[in-house]
UniProtKB/TrEMBL annotation:
Protein name, per record: Hypoxanthine phosphoribosyltransferase
Enzyme Commission (EC) number: 2.4.2.8
GO molecular function: glycosyltransferase activity
Xref: InterPro entries: HGPRT, Hxn_phspho_trans, PRTase-like, PRTase_dom
Lineage: Bacteria, Pseudomonadati, Pseudomonadota, Alphaproteobacteria, Rhodobacterales
The keyword Methyltransferase is annotated on this UniProt entry: no
Keywords: Cytoplasm, Glycosyltransferase, Magnesium, Metal-binding, Nucleotide-binding, Purine salvage, Transferase
Gene3D superfamilies, sorted: 3.40.50.2020
Gene: HPRT
Length: 180
């Protein structure tokens, strides 16, 4: 889909992200230190960089699985209707689960995925989101761990896209449109 011309203003540097991921991993490790195996579930596609860094900081036996949900299409506005495009490969019944999300915005995606996974009766289910835009929230949900709270800006980088672009930026940047 064609996009309007835009520039990207750096908001969170790669170094700052790395330090925060390390700190989050320590807290997550403390919570799950007695686990026999932690199933780390990445929400595709925006969390793929975050989950890759997160599992390498977690000194625990982990299994990695993915679920793909969509609410945005190629626009910058949530449609509020969450669809599951790809489900987990493995069973999570009786298992320890960590859901890894890139951004909690309106909250519909995380709410939907958590509801779906809780219905499968995991032993423990926790959530971590790299970014949170609290002023955009429309449903009452908050991740158990959050990397950074950010203002209501459309962001890209570190796995996060705008119309499938800019996922490969090492930092988080705000999209600034050049035309009204
Ligand atoms: P929610 O259902 O509104 O909370 O939206 C969550 C999903 O929307 C995230 O997992 C992202 O994929 C996407 N999203 C929300 N805000 C942004 C943004 O600023 N840039 C890119 N994607 C976003």
């Amino acid at each position: 889909m064609p996009t309007r011309p835009y520039v990207i203003d750096e908001m969170i540097s790669a170094k700052t992200i790395a330090a925060r991921v390390e700190a989050l991993a320590k807290e997550i490790h403390d919570t799950f230190r007695d686990t026999d195996k932690l199933v780390v579930v990445g929400l595709l596609r925006g969390s793929f960089v975050f989950i890759a860094d997160m599992v390498r900081e977690l000194d625990l036996p982990v299994e990695v699985d993915f679920i793909e949900a969509t609410s945005y299409g190629d626009s910058t506005e949530s449609s509020r209707e969450v669809r599951i495009l790809k489900d987990l490969r493995g069973e999570i019944h009786g298992r320890d689960v960590l859901v890894v999300e890139d951004i909690v915005d309106t909250g519909y995606t995380l709410q939907h995925v958590v509801g779906l996974l809780r219905a499968r009766a995991p032993k423990r289910l926790k959530t971590v989101a790299l970014l949170d835009k609290p002023t955009r929230r429309e449903v009452d949900i908050k991740a158990d761990w959050t990397g950074f709270e950010i203002p209501d800006e459309f962001v890209v980088g570190y796995g996060i896209d705008y119309a499938q672009r800019n996922r490969n930026l090492p930092f988080i940047g705000a999209v600034r449109f050049l035309e009204p």
